[in-house]
TrEMBL record:
Residues 8-328 form the Aminotransferase class V domain. One of its GO terms (molecular function) is transaminase activity. It comes from the Bacteria. The keyword Cytoplasm applies. It catalyses: 4-(phosphooxy)-L-threonine + 2-oxoglutarate = (R)-3-hydroxy-2-oxo-4-phosphooxybutanoate + L-glutamate; O-phospho-L-serine + 2-oxoglutarate = 3-phosphooxypyruvate + L-glutamate. It is an enzyme of class 2 (transferase). PANTHER family: ALANINE--GLYOXYLATE AMINOTRANSFERASE (PTHR21152:SF40), AMINOTRANSFERASE CLASS V (PTHR21152). Belongs to the class-V pyridoxal-phosphate-dependent aminotransferase family. SerC subfamily. This is phosphoserine transaminase. Pathway: Amino-acid biosynthesis; L-serine biosynthesis; L-serine from 3-phospho-D-glycerate: step 2/3. Keywords: Amino-acid biosynthesis, Aminotransferase, Cytoplasm, Pyridoxal phosphate, Pyridoxine biosynthesis, Serine biosynthesis, Transferase. InterPro entries: Aminotrans_V_dom, Pser_aminoTfrase, PyrdxlP-dep_Trfase, PyrdxlP-dep_Trfase_major, PyrdxlP-dep_Trfase_small. Its EC number is 2.6.1.52. It comes from Pontibacter silvestris.
Length: 362
């Protein structure tokens, strides 16, 4: 038994009601039901309608369930890129999407800025031949984010046929995306939805679907069981091609009910208020300083601080008080900490973390 509160960037703290929903799932033997049964189809439909409501998704968008964001990177390339993709890169995960495109034999080009920096969109030139433009709204490794107003400028810079993909893995539902300015967005549930890992959610519009169908018509492989046409044909019947993560789809549907009851606006306001508490503290600390220099590029959900004390020592001091923050990513493991500020983190928990850090570290 542990009372530890995880401020790690994912997996992270579970949404407070998850244990209760787990118990209900066990009591109702959700783990044993067939994924072709009406009971499962109702769970699936419940999760999709909850997502549509929370994310204010337009009708020309579909919701697909995959295993992870990593899988969505691979499926996105397979299903929408014949020759060339273009990537904005400013950290490890945006770089990984770029690499996956190359690994799948496409020509991947990029516009890269240093780790921890955001983008000056006016400077970006997008090759007219790029079929997919990959934007990272929130780079989990570095804490740099892209304001929605900047995302909305990209369409005018890309080729008419280009599909604009937005990585909101560790920020959704915080950014109020304008879905008419993009074609796809995706995330995984172990971040802001406060669930165990093992479920990726892919939102994609009719233009992405038409592109996948066009590739199929040309005889190009778009993958097998998790191709867009295969996923869609099952999604229309509230199912997936494979036996999916039924338990997590159920938990998602339940957490979405609560998030919708609270309202996405209230979640966003609370996220901003908690982010301010954390940034104000880091900004005034003697040990920490804010890693992302431009305020407009500072993520409200994954907050990164440079630390003089090694990150492992910060966590060692927090441990007796049942709190853990994330270490830095990759080569920043000891020189940065990452603090997740997700909907599952209560204001009182964030206040307690800031208070403890102040007391223990200064
Ligand atoms: N930390 C990654 C990121 O933020 O992009 C993330 O783990 C990718 O998601 P999956 O592990 O669900 O593939
Ligand atoms: O620490 C993180 O950002 C998550 C790490 C992760 O998912 C990965 O490295 O694959």
């Amino acid at each position: 038994m542990t009372n530890k509160v995880y401020f790690t960037p994912g997996p992270s703290e579970l949404y407070p009601s998850v244990p209760e929903h787990m118990q209900a799932a066990m009591a109702n033997k959700i783990g044993s039901i067939s994924h072709r049964s009406q009971q499962f189809k109702d769970i699936y439909a419940h999760a999709v309608s909850g997502l549509r409501q929370l994310l204010q998704l337009p009708d020309n968008y579909e919701v697909l369930f995959l295993s992870s964001a990593n899988e969505i990177w691979e499926r996105a390339i397979q299903n929408t890129v014949e020759h060339e993709s273009f990537h904005l890169v400013n950290g490890s995960f945006s770089k990984r999407f770029y690499e996956i495109s190359s690994e799948l034999g496409r020509k991947a080009t990029k516009y890269e800025v240093a780790f921890g920096e955001g983008f000056n969109v006016d400077k970006i030139e997008i090759p007219a031949s790029a079929e997919l433009v990959a934007l990272v709204q929130n780079e989990t490794s570095s804490g740099a984010c892209m304001p929605v107003a900047d995302i909305n400028k990209i369409r005018a810079k890309a080729g008419e046929e280009a599909l604009i993909f937005v990585d909101v893995v560790s920020s959704m539902p915080n950014p109020a995306l304008d879905y008419s300015k993009i074609d796809s967005a995706y995330f995984s549930v172990q971040k802001c939805f406060g669930l165990p890992a093992g479920l990726g959610v892919w939102l994609l519009n009719d233009r992405c679907i038409a592109k996948a169908e066009a590739l199929v018509a040309k005889g190009i492989s778009v993958g097998s069981y998790h191709s867009v046409p295969s996923l869609l044909s099952k999604a229309k019947a509230n199912q997936t091609p494979e036996t999916p993560n039924v338990l997590n789809i159920y938990l998602l549907s339940q957490v979405l009910d609560e998030m919708n009851k609270k309202s996405v606006d209230a979640i966003r306001q609370e996220t901003e208020a908690k982010a301010k508490l954390i940034y104000d503290y880091i900004g005034s600390s003697e040990n920490f300083d804010i890693a992302v220099k431009k305020p407009e590029h500072r993520s409200p959900t994954t907050i990164i601080a440079n630390t003089k004390l090694p990150a492992s020592e910060v966590n060692k001091r927090l441990a007796p008080f049942d709190m853990a923050v994330g270490s830095g990513y990759g080569s920043y493991k000891e020189s940065q900490i990452r603090i997740a500020n997700f909907p599952a983190h209560a204001v009182t928990q964030v206040q307690a973390l800031v208070y403890k850090l102040q007391e223990l570290i200064g």
